[in-house]
Amino acid sequence: PKAAMAFAGKYEFEGDENYDAFVQKIGLPSDKVEMGRNCKIVTEVVQNGNDFTWTQHFPGGRTTTNTFTVGQEADMETMGGKKFKATVKMEDGKLVADFPNYRHTAEICGGKLVEISTSSGVVYKRTSKKIA
User: Fold this and answer.
1) Could you read off the pLDDT of 73-82 as tens digits, one per residue?
2) Which stretches does DSSP call E strand in 35-121?
3) Predicted TM-score (pTM) of this structure
4) 9-130, superfamily in CATH?
């Protein structure tokens, strides 16, 4: 398997596409929808080989952290705060996770963190620029 790309760093939300259509599709509650819209989320990734700690810092001090090892089942939390188990895989240098109602991929592209979530044909893309 291809080694993981260097994901480690801090990334600040820069822009997204299809947010509203996607959150409707996955049934995100309306208060969470507003909170997440154009939200300056800072994503902090600590990587040690295949071990990752993936933290999202929301304005106002709330954080969500997922810790996982590529290829092993881990306890994860969704955008909406639901807990579930998932196995994160590495495919062509992208991290891929199947959430309960969407598939999520993350890759480093041109120094930016590009995350794509797909649910029943709706594709949500979020781009974050590296700040540290």
Assistant:
1) 999 987 677 8
2) 42-48, 51-57, 63-69, 73-77, 83-87, 89-91, 94-98, 103-109, 112-119
3) 0.87
4) Calycin beta-barrel core domain (2.40.128.20)
